[in-house]
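WARN no homologs supplied; continuing
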Amino acid sequence: MLRLSSMLFAAAMLAQPAQAGVMYSWHQTAASPSMPSGLNLELEFSEAAVQQGKLRLDIRADCHQGYCYDGQDSLLALRYWFDVDNGDGTTTRANYIDYGHQSAPKYYSDSIVLDLDFMPGGLLSGWIVANDSNTDFELASSGAAFTVVRTGSDEGPCDGSIPVCSGELGELRIDSAQIPEPSSAAIAGLGLLAAWFARRRRS
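OK structure emitted
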C-alpha cells in the first residue's frame, strides 16, 4: 500500500503545472503614423503579484560594478522589441529590451518603473516606463486602453527621428496560451498507473 501511495503521489506531482509566471502581451488596437509596425511587449509576473491586484515597482541599477539585484520577486521578465522585416521573409528584433528577473544590470541608467492594476478579464491598466540605456519607452493607460507616450532608441526604429515615435494604441492582455496544463506525458503516466492499479485489483 505504501508503494502504491508513493506512486500515486509521484504521478500527481507530475500532473501539476510547472511553476511559471503569468504572461501579459501587447495587442495593438490602433496604429500610429509616427511609429513603425511590429511593436511587441511581454510582461511576466508572479502569480502572487497578480492575485494582489496592484503592483508598484521602481527598479533602478544603483551600482556601477558587480552584480546588483533588484530585490523583488513580482516582475519576472520584461521583453520589448520591434519586428523589422528583412525583405527576405525573415524578421529581426530591433530596439530589444530583455529584462531578466534579478539579473545584473548592464548600465547605471537601467530602470523599470511600474504602476499597474490587474483588471478583471485578464487586462492591465496603469503606467510603464523602461530604459536599458539604449532603448526606452513609456506607456500610459485610460482604463485598459494603453497609449505609447513615447519610444526611442540609439539605433534601429525610433532612433531620434522627427516626429517622435508615439501614439500607437493597444491592450496588455493575459496570454491564454500560457495557462499551464498537465503535460501529455503526465496524463499518459496517470493512465498507465490507473491500468496497473485496476489489474492489481483483479488479481
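The radius of gyration is 22 Å.
OK
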